[in-house]
Design a protein that fits this description.
By secondary structure, the chain is α/β, with parallel strands linked by helices. It is 39% helix and 14% strand. The radius of gyration is 21 Å and the shape is globular. It binds pyridoxal-5'-phosphate (PLP).
């Protein structure tokens, strides 16, 4: 392996023993910390950051020429590469900064009338809940948050919970492909079909999906899908996409209106004012890295690792797991019994102690009256990370 982290590369990874801590030098991650929150913000490998930096220099060599002559085509080429990876037509996909922005673009483009219902679940990402609440209050619509059984073991339970709330007043169903606080893969395609049957639109929040699970955007049957490349696809921070079905694109606008208004979906979103486009342009490098490290083998490995880790934690701590393996990607949750407090301050305090006293970064999440730990599994993790977490939780329990 090269000693220069920016150019460090490895031979193609073909089997499980090649994954694990030995890969950590490919990232800037502090090797002293067991990093179990890849789902939080992703982690970008050195070689992708180097490609991002290359684009920054390219821009700064001639900002005017770059922005006006180079960027439009380079950006479309990058979007096309991401679109093809996600099974989509490049004309249907644009870059946004993050999933929050993608969700906002769709929600704030909706024509909402008093009495309309905006439907989601209690597992919705809080920023998205806020956006929906804001719009419901502004337009006299109703926000409906449907509780799902949790722990969830069968996708049909989620369908049954939501089905009774999908009706002629439903303007939009906003549904997570993988939920944030609870790490559940939801049956999005089946729910989209139900929503369409009553004329509702369907917005899928796939923030966590690209790179974590197999993803074919059109196959979800949604009207709109947003997702992050900066989490599980290793792209630089601020790299996400918004996909829209062709017939929905005319009414859809970025959260920042700029020169392209009315000139078509990709034109409107491709320029939203002067910004650093280097992350979007380095998406190809992230995809190259992802493929070289195994592509589908990554997904298979991190799913297996999450399952093994979840089973270990549950065995050691006796806590209930939040989802069965079939509803799990590369994240898992476990209820923490016997710990002090159930609220956000208690969660933050435990998270901080795990980091300060045990060198473990892992989110602790208050949800439906309990604290839950949410682990992520990435190819730089190995079982020893989760054993360390189990040891730490056992030591901290009851303190
Ligand atoms: C379901 C869901 N939606 C949206 C987001 C927000 O992602 P971002 O911070 O990239 O906007 C997250 C982040 O974890 C998420 O889990």
């Amino acid at each position: 392996m090269s000693s220069d982290p920016a150019t460090a590369t490895l031979a193609p990874v073909t089997n499980r023993p090649d994954y694990g801590k030995r890969l950590l030098p490919l990232w800037a991650l502090d090797p002293a910390i067991a990093y179990l929150n890849h789902g939080g913000y992703g982690a970008t490998p050195h070689e992708v950051l180097a490609e991002q930096q290359r684009w920054r220099f390219e821009l700064e060599r001639g900002p005017t020429r770059f922005m006006q002559r180079v960027l439009p085509e380079a950006l479309r080429a990058s979007a096309a590469e991401l679109a093809r990876f996600l099974g989509a037509d490049p004309m249907d996909l644009v870059f946004v900064e993050n999933a929050t922005q993608g969700m906002n673009a769709v929600l704030r483009s909706l024509e909402i009338s008093p009495g309309d219902e905006l439907l989601t679940t209690t597992h919705v990402y809080n920023a998205v809940r806020n956006t929906m609440r804001h719009l419901a209050e502004r337009f006299g619509a109703k926000l409906i948050e449907v509780p799902l059984p949790y722990p969830l073991h069968d996708p049909q339970e989620a369908i049954d919970a939501l089905a009774g709330h999908i009706n002629a007043r439903t303007k939009l169903l906003a549904i997570d492909l993988i939920t944030s606080p609870t790490a559940l893969i939801l049956p999005v395609a089946a729910l989209a079909a139900k929503a369409h049957a009553v004329g509702a639109q369907v917005l899928v929040d796939a923030a966590h999906a690209p790179g974590q699970i197999e993803l074919d955007l059109p196959a979800l049957g949604a009207d709109y899908i947003t997702g992050n490349a900066h989490k599980w696809l290793f792209a630089p921070k601020g790299t996400a996409f918004l996909w829209a079905r062709r017939d929905r694109q005319a009414g859809l606008h970025p959260t920042t209106i700029s020169h392209g208004l009315g000139q078509g979906f990709t034109t409107e979103f491709d320029w939203v004012g002067t910004r650093d486009p280097s992350g979007w342009l380095a998406t190809g490098a992230a995809l190259t890295f992802y493929r070289r490290m195994g592509g589908s083998a990554i997904r298979a490995h991190i799913h297996a690792l999450a399952n093994e880790a979840a089973a270990l934690l549950s065995e050691r701590l006796g806590g209930e797991l939040g989802q069965s393996p079939r509803l799990r990607g590369a994240m898992a949750t476990m209820r923490l019994d016997g710990f002090e407090g159930q609220d956000r301050p208690a969660a933050l305090a435990l998270n901080d102690r795990l980091w300060r006293e045990h060198g473990i970064e892992v989110p602790i999440i208050p949800f439906s009256g309990s604290l839950w730990v949410r682990i992520s599994a990435q190819i730089y993790n190995e079982m020893s990370d989760y054993r360390r977490l189990a040891d730490a939780l056992q030591a901290l329990r009851g303190q």
